[in-house]
Amino acid sequence: MTGKPRGGTAWRWVLGSLLLLALAWWVHRSLGWRNLLQPWGQLPPGELAGALFLVAGSYAVRAVRVWRYFWPDTRQGYRATLRLTLIHNLLNNLLPARTGEASFPLLMKGAFQIPLSRSLPALLYFRFLDLHFLLTLAGVSVLAGAAAGGWGALALLLAPLPWWAFRLQGRLASRLEKREGKIRDQLSNALAGLPSRSSVFWETWGWTALNWGAKLLVYAWILRAFFPMPMAPALVGSATGELSSVLPVHGVAGAGTYEAGVVAGLVLWGVPPRDALQAAVNLHLFVLGASALCAALGLLLPARGPATRRR
Known about the structure:
Layout: H1 7-30, H2 33-37, H3 45-69, H4 78-94, H5 103-112, H6 116-145, H7 149-157, H8 161-176, H9 182-192, H10 198-226, H11 231-243, H12 257-267, H13 273-298, H14 306-310
Helix pairs in contact: 3-4, 3-10, 4-5, 4-13, 5-6, 6-7, 6-9, 6-10, 6-11, 10-11, 10-13, 11-12, 12-13
């Protein structure tokens, strides 16, 4: 290894840094950083602490999802699972263009000796559930607010999509058993990392819903603290901000694209762009602060499960 960044990684960092600088300049010119941060002093400390507690709880639920999905390999290692979840979450929030995702298979390998052939398909499955839940929640919120009902109806029609995908996966696995070849082996290995029983599917989906439900309620509260708005647009803005993470390009620490996602969701509901930007930037600061604080606390937890340490 030369130690030099690959070309693909280099352009992501360059573009991500430019997006970060562009956001800083935009906020400075349109709002002023002092004016933007001033409302934090008016937030009740108890409510802010409660919001941090709930977000930390959502991270713990996300760790349970991983812990239970890889059972029994992780059976005695929930603390190690929580640690790697918190670190993985921070890297995802900080590194540009989802490069932080690459840490998950490596962390699972180091903590539980789980190979990439299992952890990588599972990660893609988790992200599929996350994306689906965000879209569905945004659709439900849109319908509740009676705005852009066509998009909301479409999201509800797609609500059973994970279950359809799970059923299709089983049929595909059955057909692959009758075939031979390298491609067949690769597909079979990928399917082996996905849930094979309906009980695993529904449990994973339940942890996903609990995780995002708690987190987006907190994010909606933060948005409403910086600009008075109904709950529906606040939920939509929170969801569209998180959805921006699926873009192939976004800034260092998600700067620029996260705010654009939140603003797009709020402006759709008639929130003035300037107020939407202030709320979006402050929400992003809260997200980064919460993930950094939780990751720092996670470093106090064991890095490996008991079974791995004995090897």
